[in-house]
Amino acid sequence: MKLREKIFGCVLLVVATVTAWRILTPRDDVKFVATIVDERPAPSFQLLDQNGRPVQLEGYLHRHRIVLIFFDGRNGLNGNSILQWIRKFAPAIKRTGIRLIAISTPLTPEFKSQAESFPFPVLHDTWSGQPGSCSVKWGTAILPAKDSVATIKPAIFVIERTGLVEWDGDTPKPVNDPELFLTQLITGS
Predict the structure, then answer these.
(1) Domain extent for 69
(2) Mind listing the pLDDT tens digit for each residue in 144-186?
(3) Residue 65: CB partners within 8 Å, gap ≥ 6?
């Protein structure tokens, strides 16, 4: 037998042995975890801003990423630490292409003057708690006793540039940890 035939026979034996071992030895199972995110179109609204001008959500959709901040307006804007923090960093946030919109119940004249100095729209939901109102569509209305305006529970929502927002059942899902979210938003992480 020639040397070439011996080498070829050895290589063939090694390949056959490795192939048989690979077939007979089970591999570790690879497990994939898929997280299903329920994203649907953001509920639309048209509300008046702090200057009495109508603002439609559709004017921002598909052009910007939007952060909606629902807040309880009974203590005013200057009494809300999250709004003050967002106000401080609003120019930096705007440079990232994100548009900020704050929403509350109608503001008293004193609080309305506070809103006029904000660098983003501060909208008021005059029909808060009524069927079809913005606060009901977004799941932030705390329904009151009969014949009074609903208060709004604080929440932050993110609407992607696609116009989609994450949902939880029948209403959009707010971010879990607003302070962490805002920190990440401001730092760009």
Answers:
(1) 40-187
(2) 666 667 889 999 999 999 999 999 999 999 999 998 998 888 8
(3) 97, 98, 99, 158, 159, 160, 161
